[in-house]
Design a protein that fits this description.
By secondary structure, the chain is mainly beta. Among the domains are: 2-66; 283-399, Jelly Rolls. The protein contains four helices and 28 strands. It has helices spanning 2-19, 31-41, 52-66, 106-113, and strands at 78-81, 86-89, 123-126, 131-134, 143-146, 152-155, 174-177, 182-185, 194-197, 203-206, 220-223, 228-231, 240-243, 249-252, 260-261, 266-267, 270-271, 278-279, 283-287, 292-294, 299-304, 311-322, 327-334, 339-347, 352-363, 369-375, 380-383, 394-399. The strands form eleven sheets. Strands 19, 20, 22, 25, 27 and 28 form a six-stranded antiparallel beta sheet that branches. Strands 21-26-23-24 form a four-stranded antiparallel beta sheet, with no helix packed on it. Strands 1-2 form a two-stranded antiparallel sheet. The radius of gyration is 66 Å and the shape is elongated.
Length: 401
């Protein structure tokens, strides 16, 4: 038993000596050195033992080799140093490809992004793929112009005519667009005028278009065909403004009525200073004074003699009576030529009566206005006083024009 223990201690001692036969690298170590230490410091257990010391040394070398030993501050980057693959604190600027500026100072960073200016007034512009610089304009007063490709340049004088206003020559000059460029129109220095344009848009000064000077209250300005002129206000009394056939206005005293003549339908004659005019509409009426027999042919009832001139409105009423049952009276209001109105009266029972009224208008009647009736039997009559009040059958006419 003692012999076996002594042999085991001897084997461990030999293995430890064998495992540490090749010394480990000294940090910082390269990748190949660390890989070699893995092979030499960590043999299989059947060859040699792995001690805590070996693990501490290897872990220290690994940490010191994979992390920079001198960081410059918060947010600092680590960089590969040389060709060894070891990490360390960055000592050069981070390039544009890696999101940096390639510079370590603010002016240097600005120059790396924007092109370097040459002189005062230089302008940076984008050419489609990078920032470029156009030199500032230090020669004349100019404007910045771009081609249709977006390339800028300074232009001045006639080269910038579509963009630059022309140089004025005196006070009051007017700048206008002639269709292709800006032009100057000399200011008006010859009197009070207004600016006018022809149909092509060319401006000019027109003195005749100025409103004339007024003289007094009520003055009226009018156009005489070539200029504005003034008509003096009316100070001579109540007048009205009139114009002649040429459009020239003037003040005229309103006309006064010297006479009034009464026309048709009026009476009063000619009135010069005083008088009255009254309505004068002739009115005619006539009624039967006794009963009138009516047979199968028209018989004229009440009639008025109104004459043949003017327009007349007539109204007639008759009372028809018959001893025969079921008869019909047919009547018309007329001037013996033109029928103004017509109608009929039916008597269903014997020895009964009824009334019928007709009305109408007529112009320039040819004969007396009348109401004429006929009966379907020969036993009828037109009554004068069937009601007991008289004037049962009557006609009235009035001239309305």
């Amino acid at each position: 038993m003692r012999l076996l223990l002594t042999f085991a201690i001897l084997v461990l001692s030999v293995c430890e000596v064998h495992a540490q036969a090749t010394p480990p690298c000294t940090a910082p170590c390269t990748k190949s050195q660390l890989l070699n230490d893995v092979q030499t410091q960590f043999p299989d257990n059947t060859v040699g033992a792995i001690t805590p010391s070996i693990l501490r040394n290897f872990q220290t070398n690994l940490i010191n080799s994979s992390m920079a030993t001198s960081p410059v501050g918060a947010g600092a980057f680590t960089c590969y140093v040389g060709t060894t693959g070891l990490l360390g604190a960055c000592t050069s600027a981070l390039g544009l490809a890696l999101g940096g500026t390639g510079a370590t100072t603010q002016p240097g960073a600005a120059a790396a992004i924007f092109p370097s200016p040459v002189r005062t007034g230089d302008i940076a512009y984008w050419n489609g793929s990078a920032w470029g610089t156009i030199p500032g304009n230090n020669t004349t007063t100019g404007v910045l112009e771009q081609t249709n490709a977006g390339v800028p340049s300074w232009v001045s004088g006639s080269a910038a005519a579509p963009l630059v206003f022309p140089t004025p020559t005196r006070s009051g000059d007017v700048v206008y667009w002639n269709g292709t460029s800006w032009q100057t129109f000399p200011g008006n220095n010859s009197g009070s005028q207004v600016l006018s344009e022809n149909a092509s848009g060319v401006p000019s000064w027109i003195p005749s278009a100025i409103f004339p000077t007024t003289i007094r209250a009520g003055d009226i300005m009018y156009w005489n065909g070539s200029a504005w002129v003034t008509l003096g206000g009316n100070f001579s009394g109540t007048q009205v403004l009139t114009e002649n056939s040429s459009g020239v206005p003037s003040w005229t005293t309103p006309g006064t009525v010297t006479s009034v003549t009464a026309g048709t339908g009026l009476s009063g004659g000619v009135i010069t200073t005083t008088g009255t005019v009254a309505i004068n509409m002739p009115y005619l009426t006539n009624a039967l004074s006794g009963d009138l027999a009516v047979s199968t042919t028209y018989v004229d009832g009440p009639t008025v003699a109104q004459g043949t001139s003017g327009t007349w409105w007539a109204n007639a009423t008759i009372v028809g009576f018959d001893t025969t049952a079921g008869v019909t009276f047919i009547c018309k209001l007329w001037d013996n030529t033109t029928v103004m109105a017509s109608g009929f009266l039916y008597l269903p029972n014997a020895s009964t009566g009824g009334s019928l009224s007709l009305a109408g208008a007529i112009s320039s009647p040819t004969g007396n206005i009348r109401i004429s009736c006929k009966d379907s039997a020969t036993t009828g009559s037109m009554k004068a006083n069937q009601s007991g009040n008289g004037k049962d059958s009557i006609i009235s006419a009035i001239r309305i024009q």
